[in-house]
Amino acid sequence: MQIADRLTNIPPYLFMELRKKINKAKADGIDVISLAIGDPVEATPDSIIDELCARAKDPENHRYPIDEEKGMLAFRQEVARWYHSRYGVSLDPGSEVLGLIGSKEGCHHFVLARINPGDIVLMTDPGYPAYRASILMGGGEPYNVPILAENRYLPVFEDIPTDIAKKARGMFLNYPNNPTGACATRVFFDRLVDFARQFDIAVCYDNPYSEILFEGQERLSFLMAEGAKEVGIELNSLSKPFNMCGWRIGMAAGNPDLIAAVSKVKENSDSGIFNPIQYAGIHALKHEARFIEDMLSIYEKRREMVLKALGKIGIVFDAPKGTFYLWVPVPKGMTSLEFTNRLFDKAAVVVAAGTAYGQYGEGYIRISLTVPDNRLAEAMARIEREFA
Ligand SMILES: *Cc1c(COP(=O)(O)O)cnc(C)c1O
Protein backbone atom coordinates (compact mmCIF):
# COMPACT_ATOMS: atom_id res chain seq x y z
CA MET A 1 0.00 0.00 0.00
CA GLN A 2 1.31 3.43 -0.95
CA ILE A 3 1.55 5.76 2.04
CA ALA A 4 1.10 9.55 1.88
CA ASP A 5 4.22 11.66 1.29
CA ARG A 6 3.50 13.70 4.39
CA LEU A 7 4.28 10.60 6.42
CA THR A 8 7.12 9.16 4.39
CA ASN A 9 8.86 12.55 4.63
CA ILE A 10 9.02 12.24 8.40
CA PRO A 11 12.48 10.98 9.35
CA PRO A 12 12.54 7.43 10.73
CA TYR A 13 12.41 7.01 14.46
CA LEU A 14 16.02 7.37 15.52
CA PHE A 15 15.89 4.86 18.32
CA MET A 16 14.73 2.14 15.94
CA GLU A 17 18.13 0.50 15.50
CA LEU A 18 18.84 0.80 19.20
CA ARG A 19 15.49 -0.78 19.99
CA LYS A 20 16.38 -3.79 17.83
CA LYS A 21 19.63 -4.17 19.74
CA ILE A 22 17.82 -3.83 23.05
CA ASN A 23 15.31 -6.51 22.15
CA LYS A 24 18.08 -8.84 21.06
CA ALA A 25 20.06 -8.23 24.26
CA LYS A 26 16.98 -8.85 26.39
CA ALA A 27 16.27 -12.05 24.49
CA ASP A 28 19.85 -13.11 25.29
CA GLY A 29 19.09 -12.64 28.99
CA ILE A 30 21.05 -9.40 29.46
CA ASP A 31 19.74 -7.04 32.16
CA VAL A 32 19.28 -3.86 30.14
CA ILE A 33 18.68 -0.55 31.98
CA SER A 34 17.09 2.18 29.90
CA LEU A 35 17.76 5.80 30.77
CA ALA A 36 16.53 6.88 27.36
CA ILE A 37 12.90 7.74 27.88
CA GLY A 38 11.26 10.56 29.84
CA ASP A 39 8.20 8.96 31.40
CA PRO A 40 7.82 8.94 35.20
CA VAL A 41 7.75 5.44 36.74
CA GLU A 42 6.09 6.42 40.01
CA ALA A 43 2.28 6.18 40.14
CA THR A 44 -0.16 9.04 39.62
CA PRO A 45 -1.34 10.20 43.09
CA ASP A 46 -4.16 8.04 44.49
CA SER A 47 -6.56 10.94 44.93
CA ILE A 48 -6.42 11.66 41.19
CA ILE A 49 -7.10 8.02 40.36
CA ASP A 50 -10.01 8.00 42.85
CA GLU A 51 -11.51 11.06 41.18
CA LEU A 52 -11.28 9.37 37.78
CA CYS A 53 -12.91 6.17 39.06
CA ALA A 54 -15.77 7.98 40.79
CA ARG A 55 -16.51 10.13 37.75
CA ALA A 56 -16.26 7.16 35.40
CA LYS A 57 -19.21 5.54 37.23
CA ASP A 58 -21.56 8.35 36.25
CA PRO A 59 -23.23 7.56 32.90
CA GLU A 60 -23.46 11.30 32.18
CA ASN A 61 -19.72 11.12 31.67
CA HIS A 62 -19.94 8.34 29.11
CA ARG A 63 -21.34 10.77 26.60
CA TYR A 64 -19.38 13.14 24.42
CA PRO A 65 -17.21 15.46 26.48
CA ILE A 66 -18.95 18.51 27.96
CA ASP A 67 -18.19 21.71 26.00
CA GLU A 68 -16.61 19.41 23.46
CA GLU A 69 -13.83 21.08 21.58
CA LYS A 70 -12.62 23.56 24.20
CA GLY A 71 -12.70 21.20 27.15
CA MET A 72 -15.17 21.60 30.00
CA LEU A 73 -15.43 25.09 31.42
CA ALA A 74 -14.62 23.87 34.94
CA PHE A 75 -11.30 22.47 33.66
CA ARG A 76 -10.50 25.68 31.78
CA GLN A 77 -11.32 27.71 34.90
CA GLU A 78 -9.04 25.53 36.97
CA VAL A 79 -6.24 25.97 34.42
CA ALA A 80 -6.72 29.74 34.63
CA ARG A 81 -6.57 29.58 38.43
CA TRP A 82 -3.41 27.41 38.25
CA TYR A 83 -1.72 29.83 35.86
CA HIS A 84 -2.57 32.70 38.14
CA SER A 85 -1.35 31.05 41.30
CA ARG A 86 1.79 29.45 39.82
CA TYR A 87 2.89 32.12 37.33
CA GLY A 88 0.89 35.25 38.07
CA VAL A 89 -0.66 35.03 34.60
CA SER A 90 -4.30 36.13 34.10
CA LEU A 91 -6.32 34.16 31.56
CA ASP A 92 -9.92 34.33 30.45
CA PRO A 93 -11.13 30.70 30.69
CA GLY A 94 -13.74 31.37 28.01
CA SER A 95 -11.48 32.56 25.20
CA GLU A 96 -7.86 32.06 26.25
CA VAL A 97 -7.76 28.47 27.53
CA LEU A 98 -8.31 25.15 25.84
CA GLY A 99 -8.12 21.55 27.10
CA LEU A 100 -5.85 19.25 25.10
CA ILE A 101 -5.20 15.53 24.81
CA GLY A 102 -1.63 16.27 25.90
CA SER A 103 0.65 19.05 24.78
CA LYS A 104 1.89 16.93 21.86
CA GLU A 105 -1.58 17.17 20.37
CA GLY A 106 -1.34 20.95 20.70
CA CYS A 107 1.90 21.00 18.70
CA HIS A 108 0.25 19.16 15.87
CA HIS A 109 -2.93 21.25 15.92
CA PHE A 110 -1.00 24.52 16.18
CA VAL A 111 0.49 23.80 12.75
CA LEU A 112 -2.90 22.93 11.25
CA ALA A 113 -4.36 26.09 12.79
CA ARG A 114 -1.71 28.53 11.61
CA ILE A 115 0.49 27.20 8.82
CA ASN A 116 -0.23 27.24 5.09
CA PRO A 117 1.50 24.84 2.69
CA GLY A 118 5.14 25.80 2.25
CA ASP A 119 5.29 28.22 5.19
CA ILE A 120 8.48 28.06 7.21
CA VAL A 121 8.21 27.04 10.85
CA LEU A 122 11.20 27.63 13.09
CA MET A 123 12.28 25.04 15.62
CA THR A 124 15.47 24.50 17.59
CA ASP A 125 18.32 22.09 16.95
CA PRO A 126 18.64 20.17 19.21
CA GLY A 127 14.89 19.96 19.76
CA TYR A 128 11.94 17.70 20.47
CA PRO A 129 11.49 15.52 17.36
CA ALA A 130 7.68 15.78 17.40
CA TYR A 131 7.88 19.43 16.27
CA ARG A 132 9.46 18.42 12.97
CA ALA A 133 6.85 15.71 12.48
CA SER A 134 4.01 18.14 13.27
CA ILE A 135 5.39 20.74 10.86
CA LEU A 136 5.77 18.20 8.06
CA MET A 137 2.33 16.67 8.61
CA GLY A 138 0.83 20.14 8.49
CA GLY A 139 2.53 20.94 5.19
CA GLY A 140 5.04 23.42 6.63
CA GLU A 141 8.77 23.58 6.14
CA PRO A 142 10.88 23.11 9.26
CA TYR A 143 13.87 25.42 9.69
CA ASN A 144 16.40 24.55 12.39
CA VAL A 145 17.71 27.28 14.63
CA PRO A 146 20.86 26.06 16.41
CA ILE A 147 20.92 26.34 20.19
CA LEU A 148 24.40 26.17 21.65
CA ALA A 149 25.91 25.66 25.09
CA GLU A 150 27.72 29.02 24.81
CA ASN A 151 24.32 30.76 24.60
CA ARG A 152 22.86 28.65 27.41
CA TYR A 153 20.95 26.77 24.69
CA LEU A 154 18.78 29.77 23.83
CA PRO A 155 18.36 30.81 20.18
CA VAL A 156 20.01 34.03 19.07
CA PHE A 157 17.32 35.76 17.01
CA GLU A 158 19.78 38.09 15.24
CA ASP A 159 21.50 35.03 13.77
CA ILE A 160 18.33 33.88 11.97
CA PRO A 161 18.64 35.05 8.33
CA THR A 162 16.15 37.86 7.64
CA ASP A 163 14.75 36.20 4.50
CA ILE A 164 13.98 33.10 6.59
CA ALA A 165 12.40 35.13 9.40
CA LYS A 166 10.25 36.95 6.82
CA LYS A 167 8.96 33.67 5.41
CA ALA A 168 8.41 32.10 8.83
CA ARG A 169 4.82 31.95 10.13
CA GLY A 170 5.40 29.96 13.28
CA MET A 171 8.00 28.97 15.83
CA PHE A 172 8.26 26.17 18.37
CA LEU A 173 10.11 26.82 21.59
CA ASN A 174 10.44 24.71 24.71
CA TYR A 175 12.09 25.81 27.99
CA PRO A 176 12.75 24.14 30.39
CA ASN A 177 14.15 22.38 27.37
CA ASN A 178 13.99 18.80 26.27
CA PRO A 179 16.72 17.60 25.65
CA THR A 180 19.20 20.11 27.12
CA GLY A 181 17.47 20.96 30.43
CA ALA A 182 18.11 24.65 29.76
CA CYS A 183 15.77 27.29 31.15
CA ALA A 184 14.58 30.55 29.62
CA THR A 185 14.70 33.97 31.25
CA ARG A 186 12.30 36.92 31.36
CA VAL A 187 14.71 38.92 29.22
CA PHE A 188 14.65 36.15 26.64
CA PHE A 189 10.84 36.23 26.61
CA ASP A 190 10.91 39.96 25.84
CA ARG A 191 13.30 39.35 22.94
CA LEU A 192 11.07 36.56 21.71
CA VAL A 193 7.95 38.77 21.74
CA ASP A 194 9.85 41.50 19.86
CA PHE A 195 11.11 39.05 17.24
CA ALA A 196 7.68 37.46 16.79
CA ARG A 197 6.05 40.88 16.42
CA GLN A 198 8.64 42.14 13.97
CA PHE A 199 8.14 39.20 11.58
CA ASP A 200 4.53 38.24 12.39
CA ILE A 201 5.58 34.82 13.66
CA ALA A 202 3.13 32.90 15.84
CA VAL A 203 4.88 31.37 18.85
CA CYS A 204 4.00 27.91 20.07
CA TYR A 205 5.69 27.81 23.46
CA ASP A 206 5.67 24.21 24.61
CA ASN A 207 6.08 24.27 28.39
CA PRO A 208 5.39 20.77 29.83
CA TYR A 209 8.42 21.04 32.16
CA SER A 210 7.42 24.39 33.66
CA GLU A 211 7.22 22.74 37.10
CA ILE A 212 10.31 20.52 36.85
CA LEU A 213 13.04 22.80 38.21
CA PHE A 214 16.00 22.50 40.57
CA GLU A 215 18.17 24.59 42.83
CA GLY A 216 15.80 27.53 43.15
CA GLN A 217 15.34 28.02 39.40
CA GLU A 218 12.37 30.38 38.86
CA ARG A 219 9.10 28.95 37.53
CA LEU A 220 8.29 30.70 34.27
CA SER A 221 5.50 30.87 31.73
CA PHE A 222 6.01 32.54 28.38
CA LEU A 223 2.65 34.26 29.04
CA MET A 224 4.33 36.28 31.81
CA ALA A 225 5.97 38.39 29.09
CA GLU A 226 4.25 41.59 28.09
CA GLY A 227 2.62 41.11 24.69
CA ALA A 228 2.97 37.31 24.75
CA LYS A 229 -0.77 36.81 24.24
CA GLU A 230 -0.61 38.90 21.08
CA VAL A 231 1.98 36.65 19.46
CA GLY A 232 1.33 33.13 20.60
CA ILE A 233 0.09 30.34 22.79
CA GLU A 234 1.65 28.28 25.51
CA LEU A 235 1.09 24.55 25.70
CA ASN A 236 1.29 22.77 29.00
CA SER A 237 0.51 19.34 30.30
CA LEU A 238 -0.34 17.30 33.36
CA SER A 239 1.88 14.46 32.08
CA LYS A 240 5.19 15.41 33.63
CA PRO A 241 4.28 17.21 36.92
CA PHE A 242 1.60 14.72 38.05
CA ASN A 243 3.00 11.49 36.53
CA MET A 244 0.04 11.39 34.13
CA CYS A 245 1.75 10.73 30.79
CA GLY A 246 -0.66 7.95 29.89
CA TRP A 247 -3.79 9.91 30.82
CA ARG A 248 -3.43 12.33 27.91
CA ILE A 249 -4.45 15.67 29.30
CA GLY A 250 -2.94 19.08 28.77
CA MET A 251 -3.83 22.63 27.88
CA ALA A 252 -3.20 25.54 25.58
CA ALA A 253 -3.43 29.14 26.74
CA GLY A 254 -2.87 32.53 25.22
CA ASN A 255 -3.84 34.24 21.98
CA PRO A 256 -7.64 33.97 21.59
CA ASP A 257 -7.53 33.75 17.77
CA LEU A 258 -5.12 30.84 17.89
CA ILE A 259 -7.10 29.20 20.70
CA ALA A 260 -10.25 29.47 18.60
CA ALA A 261 -8.43 28.09 15.55
CA VAL A 262 -7.04 25.12 17.48
CA SER A 263 -10.54 24.48 18.91
CA LYS A 264 -11.86 24.38 15.39
CA VAL A 265 -9.28 21.73 14.50
CA LYS A 266 -10.34 19.71 17.56
CA GLU A 267 -14.02 20.13 16.84
CA ASN A 268 -13.37 18.51 13.49
CA SER A 269 -11.08 15.75 14.67
CA ASP A 270 -11.26 14.42 18.24
CA SER A 271 -14.26 15.99 20.06
CA GLY A 272 -12.28 16.52 23.25
CA ILE A 273 -11.11 14.79 26.43
CA PHE A 274 -13.04 12.04 28.29
CA ASN A 275 -14.94 13.90 31.05
CA PRO A 276 -13.64 11.80 33.97
CA ILE A 277 -10.08 12.61 32.88
CA GLN A 278 -10.94 16.30 32.88
CA TYR A 279 -12.39 15.98 36.40
CA ALA A 280 -9.24 14.15 37.46
CA GLY A 281 -7.21 16.96 35.89
CA ILE A 282 -9.15 19.56 37.87
CA HIS A 283 -8.49 17.56 41.01
CA ALA A 284 -4.74 17.37 40.25
CA LEU A 285 -4.41 21.11 39.71
CA LYS A 286 -6.54 21.92 42.73
CA HIS A 287 -5.19 19.47 45.31
CA GLU A 288 -1.94 17.85 44.28
CA ALA A 289 0.59 20.68 43.92
CA ARG A 290 2.48 19.21 46.87
CA PHE A 291 2.99 15.98 44.93
CA ILE A 292 5.18 17.93 42.54
CA GLU A 293 7.45 18.91 45.44
CA ASP A 294 7.77 15.25 46.41
CA MET A 295 8.70 14.26 42.85
CA LEU A 296 11.20 17.08 42.61
CA SER A 297 13.03 15.90 45.69
CA ILE A 298 13.19 12.41 44.16
CA TYR A 299 14.57 13.78 40.88
CA GLU A 300 16.98 16.04 42.75
CA LYS A 301 18.57 13.06 44.51
CA ARG A 302 18.84 11.12 41.26
CA ARG A 303 20.29 14.13 39.54
CA GLU A 304 22.98 14.39 42.20
CA MET A 305 23.65 10.66 41.96
CA VAL A 306 24.24 10.89 38.19
CA LEU A 307 26.34 14.05 38.37
CA LYS A 308 28.50 12.47 41.06
CA ALA A 309 29.02 9.26 39.09
CA LEU A 310 29.84 11.21 35.93
CA GLY A 311 32.28 13.34 37.90
CA LYS A 312 34.10 10.17 38.95
CA ILE A 313 34.73 9.24 35.32
CA GLY A 314 35.91 12.74 34.47
CA ILE A 315 32.69 14.18 33.00
CA VAL A 316 32.19 17.46 34.82
CA PHE A 317 29.81 20.11 33.48
CA ASP A 318 27.55 22.91 34.54
CA ALA A 319 24.17 21.14 34.37
CA PRO A 320 21.18 23.32 33.50
CA LYS A 321 18.46 23.38 36.16
CA GLY A 322 15.29 22.25 34.41
CA THR A 323 13.54 19.03 33.27
CA PHE A 324 14.23 15.50 34.43
CA TYR A 325 16.93 15.07 31.80
CA LEU A 326 20.66 15.57 31.94
CA TRP A 327 22.38 16.64 28.72
CA VAL A 328 25.78 15.15 29.20
CA PRO A 329 28.92 15.95 27.18
CA VAL A 330 30.54 12.77 25.86
CA PRO A 331 34.19 11.94 26.68
CA LYS A 332 36.78 13.60 24.44
CA GLY A 333 37.47 11.82 21.18
CA MET A 334 34.10 10.06 21.00
CA THR A 335 30.95 10.84 19.06
CA SER A 336 27.49 10.73 20.63
CA LEU A 337 26.74 7.48 18.89
CA GLU A 338 30.07 5.88 19.86
CA PHE A 339 29.52 6.73 23.51
CA THR A 340 25.90 5.55 23.33
CA ASN A 341 26.97 2.26 21.76
CA ARG A 342 29.76 1.72 24.25
CA LEU A 343 27.39 2.27 27.19
CA PHE A 344 25.05 -0.25 25.68
CA ASP A 345 27.59 -2.88 24.62
CA LYS A 346 29.72 -2.74 27.76
CA ALA A 347 27.28 -1.70 30.49
CA ALA A 348 23.87 -2.64 29.04
CA VAL A 349 22.79 0.93 29.75
CA VAL A 350 20.63 2.68 27.15
CA VAL A 351 20.85 6.44 26.75
CA ALA A 352 19.61 8.74 23.99
CA ALA A 353 22.33 9.90 21.58
CA GLY A 354 22.31 13.69 21.29
CA THR A 355 22.10 13.44 17.51
CA ALA A 356 18.59 12.00 17.85
CA TYR A 357 17.57 15.62 18.56
CA GLY A 358 19.43 17.25 15.69
CA GLN A 359 22.95 17.72 14.34
CA TYR A 360 23.82 20.17 17.12
CA GLY A 361 23.19 17.37 19.56
CA GLU A 362 26.54 15.91 18.48
CA GLY A 363 28.86 15.64 21.46
CA TYR A 364 26.09 14.90 23.96
CA ILE A 365 23.89 12.15 25.30
CA ARG A 366 20.62 12.57 27.17
CA ILE A 367 20.05 10.74 30.43
CA SER A 368 16.55 10.59 31.86
CA LEU A 369 15.93 10.55 35.62
CA THR A 370 12.58 8.78 35.31
CA VAL A 371 13.92 5.39 36.45
CA PRO A 372 13.71 3.78 39.88
CA ASP A 373 16.53 4.81 42.24
CA ASN A 374 18.00 1.33 42.46
CA ARG A 375 18.11 0.90 38.69
CA LEU A 376 19.74 4.28 38.26
CA ALA A 377 22.29 3.42 40.95
CA GLU A 378 23.04 0.13 39.21
CA ALA A 379 23.43 1.90 35.86
CA MET A 380 25.83 4.41 37.38
CA ALA A 381 27.86 1.65 39.06
CA ARG A 382 28.22 -0.10 35.70
CA ILE A 383 29.26 3.11 33.96
CA GLU A 384 31.83 3.87 36.66
CA ARG A 385 33.24 0.35 36.30
CA GLU A 386 33.44 0.58 32.51
CA PHE A 387 35.16 3.97 32.47
CA ALA A 388 37.30 3.59 35.61
C1 LIG B 1 6.86 15.02 27.07
C2 LIG B 1 6.81 16.15 26.11
C3 LIG B 1 5.62 16.52 25.50
C4 LIG B 1 4.40 15.65 25.54
O1 LIG B 1 3.54 16.01 26.49
P1 LIG B 1 2.09 15.36 26.50
O2 LIG B 1 1.31 16.36 27.24
O3 LIG B 1 2.21 14.07 27.22
O4 LIG B 1 1.63 15.20 25.11
C5 LIG B 1 5.59 17.66 24.73
N1 LIG B 1 6.69 18.38 24.53
C6 LIG B 1 7.87 18.03 25.07
C7 LIG B 1 9.06 18.86 24.80
C8 LIG B 1 7.97 16.89 25.86
O5 LIG B 1 9.16 16.51 26.34
Give the helix/strand layout:
Layout: H1 5-8, H2 16-27, E1 33-34, H3 46-56, H4 73-87, E2 97-100, H5 103-114, E3 120-125, H6 129-137, E4 141-146, H7 162-167, E5 168-173, H8 186-199, E6 202-206, H9 228-231, E7 232-237, E8 250-254, H10 256-267, H11 275-287, H12 289-312, E9 325-329, H13 336-347, E10 349-350, E11 352-353, E12 364-368, H14 373-387
Parallel strand pairs: 1-10, 3-4, 3-5, 5-6, 6-7
Antiparallel strand pairs: 2-8, 7-8, 9-12, 11-12
Helix pairs in contact: 3-11, 4-11, 5-6, 5-10, 12-14
The chain binds pyridoxal-5'-phosphate (PLP).
Task: Explain what you see.
- Helix content is 42%, strand content 14%.
- The protein has helices at residues 5-8, 16-27, 46-56, 73-87, 103-114, 129-137, 162-167, 186-199, 228-231, 256-267, 275-287, 289-312, 336-347, 373-387, and strands spanning 33-34, 97-100, 120-125, 141-146, 168-173, 202-206, 232-237, 250-254, 325-329, 349-350, 352-353, 364-368.
- α12 (289-312) runs parallel beside α14 (373-387).
- The chain contains 14 helices and 12 strands.
- The strands form 3 sheets. The protein has a 7-stranded mixed β-sheet with strand order 2-8-7-6-5-3-4, with helices on both faces. Strands 9-12-11 form a 3-stranded antiparallel β-sheet. The chain has a two-stranded parallel sheet with strand order 1-10.
- The model has no long low-confidence stretch (mean pLDDT 96).
- The radius of gyration is 21 Å and the shape is globular.
- The chain is α/β, with parallel strands linked by helices and 388 residues long.
- It has 2 domains: 5-43 and 290-387, Aspartate Aminotransferase, domain 1 (Alpha-Beta Complex); 46-288, 3-Layer(aba) Sandwich (Aspartate Aminotransferase, domain 2), CATH 3.40.640.
- Residues 38, 102-104, 128, 174, 178, 206, 208, 237, 239, 245, 250 line the site of pyridoxal-5'-phosphate.
